[in-house]
Design a protein that fits this description.
Strand order of the largest sheet: 3-4-5
Organism: Carnegiea gigantea
Shape: globular
Protein name: Endonuclease/exonuclease/phosphatase domain-containing protein
Number of domains: 2
Number of helices: 3
Length: 154
Amino acid sequence: METILVQLGDYHGAFVDARGRSGGLALLWDKNLELIVVSYSSHHIDATLKWHNQDPLWWFTGAGGPLRAQAHIDAFRDAFLDNDLHDLGFSGYEFTWCNKRVGAEVVEERLDRFCASTERSIQFPEARVQHIDSYISDHLPILLRCKPRNWEAT
């Protein structure tokens, strides 16, 4: 991942190494943002993002790992509803994960997504999510491009 980071240029990165051919997480962000990794494990990265030294604007959670109990999935869904979160949509390929099998055994799902509250969507009206083609991993990288309303480059 460090090689990819160097190729991209103006980005910082946080990585959780894969175990053999499974797992592994990467989070890349523009050097103009202040990102603080709050916690991480082989299944998640939690971070806060600040835009030009303002109060934390975003909380990022990237997660993976084994199947979860339905009660955990329901609690996660309820947290979305309770905090006015909605999916930001995307452009690109419909699915973000594939089991890398062929024919009738292939399974594809949209597991990875960016979400925001209505307040943040108003503050960042130009936020766009893109699924990026990749043949390296079973997950597609997803990219969030955004800048706040009335933003001027420094």
